[in-house]
Specification:
The chain is mainly α. The chain contains 7 helices and 6 strands; from the N terminus they run E-E-H-E-H-E-E-E-H-H-H-H-H.
């Protein structure tokens, strides 16, 4: 997925496929939940970041890539390093600039913006859905252990039910 493959590199590789690094060449690649990457993937990612080269599966030679990488995780990477689950050298390669985003329960002021965004995303074309005062009160009182993804799911669910009830 990240590095691509050549035609015939493995069973089912009926055509060559660019990896995410090659697709992002000259731009930015977002890696979500980087802490969940297995050790072999971490080693390959580190090599790609250090050398600016990727080697598609089945390729004869590496391919140069110029990519800015943004990585995110909900895990404490220093704790993962201490547990032997994340490479320290990869941590320092990725951690050029760190931005800590508090959980939704710590930034309830963002609810208005996020709810509005998700309502527009999941509403039927032309609809302008809104929430009742009691729905807003329930959202503001809830701690969202599933963070923004849980809020998105709740709004999506509500939009589906509201559309089926018309």
């Amino acid at each position: 997925e990240l590095f691509g493959h050549e035609k015939g590199a493995f069973t089912g590789a009926v055509k060559a496929r660019l990896g995410r690094f090659q697709m992002a060449h000259g731009g930015t690649l977002f890696l979500d939940e980087v802490a969940e990457m297995p050790p072999l993937g971490q080693a390959k990612l580190l090599r790609a970041l250090q050398e600016g080269m990727v080697e598609p599966v089945g390729a004869d030679s590496p391919v140069a890539v110029d990519v800015r990488v943004l990585a995110a995780t909900h895990r404490d990477l220093k704790a993962r390093i201490a547990e032997g689950l994340f490479r320290e050298d990869l941590y320092y390669r990725l951690n050029v600039l760190s931005v800590a985003v508090p959980s939704l329960r710590e930034r309830k002021d963002d609810l208005t913006l996020l709810v509005g965004h998700f309502l527009r995303r999941y509403a039927r074309h032309g609809d302008s859905p809104s929430l009742s005062a009691s729905a807003w009160a329930a959202l503001q009182a809830y701690d969202f252990p599933g963070n923004v993804r849980e809020l998105e799911h709740a709004i999506h669910h509500a939009c589906v039910l509201a559309q089926d009830c018309t």
